[in-house]
Amino acid sequence: MGTPARPGYIKLNLSGELANRAQQLRERYSNCNLCPHVCGVDRTKGEMGRCRSGAQAVVASTSAHFGEEPPISGTSGSGTIFFSGCTGRCLFCQNYPISQLGVGETADDQSLANMMLKLQRRGCHNINFVTPTHYSPSIVAAINIAADNGLNIPIVYNTSGYERIEILELLDGIVDIYLPDMKYADDAVARELSGFENYSSCNRAAIKEMFRQVGDLKIRESIAYRGLIVRHLVLPSNLSGTDIVMNFLRFEISQKVHISLMSQYFPAHSALHREDIGRSLTSDEYDRALKYFFDVELDNGWFQEQNHV
Description:
The chain is an alpha/beta fold.
C-alpha cells in the first residue's frame, strides 16, 4: 500500500493554521456551541452547560490501551487520553463516574501535549482522544504544542457521534481517524436514554462529514492510519435501531465502511431498575443484529463474543 503520508496536523502546524484553528475553537468557550446542545454558557467564567465542564480540560486517565479495534490497538496499544464529562447523559453508562460525576484531574494545554508525547515515546500507534467533543479547543491547542515538539502519529477522535458540522470542519486535516458511535436511529429513544436532542439527524450529518474528511479506513501493516470506523452498541429490544443504522451506513456512507458491532451491553448506572434496559442483551438479539449487517452486504465488521443469556 506504500508509506502513509504524515498526519495532516503537521502541515497545519508548520503553516500556522493549526494555531488559528485552536483560537477559533477556543473563542467558543465563552458562548459555548461546541456540541448540538448549544448551551451558550460562558465556560471561561465557570459557567457549565450540559457537559458540566469548564474551560480547562479534565483528564480521567491516560494509557496504552489494548482493548480498541485491532487496527487501532495494534501490538503496542492505542495512546488513550480519556476526558471527564460528556455531552450525553446515558442512563446505562458504564463509565458514569467519569462521564457524569467528573472524576479526573485538570490539565492545561502544555500538560495535554506532554501526555501525547509520552504516549508516543511508549510506542503507541496513535493518540486516541476519548469523549473529546466538549474539550476540542484544548485538544487542538495541545496538538499544536505537541507537533512543535515532534508528535507525528495519527490522531483518533473517539466520540459519541453527537457533533456539529461547523466544529467538525475545524477539525478537518487535524483528525486522522474518526471513531464515532451511532447509538440510536430514533430521536425519542435517544432523548429518553441519553438526553440527546435531535440525535439521529445530528449523528447522520456528522458521520457524513467525517467520511468526507477521511474516507474508508486505510491500513498499513495491520495498523490504521486514516479513515472512519463506526461503533454501534446493540441494545435490548433493538432500541438502538440496528437495522436502520446498518442501512444508513451501507447506502449513504459506503459498502466498505468499517463497523464495530458491539454486544457488550449490560445494565449499569441508572438502567438497573428499568424495564426496557434493565437486562443484558440476549444471544438472539445479537444474532439479529448480525443478520442486519449481513443482509445489507456490508464488507467490513468486527463482532464480539456472544456470552449472553
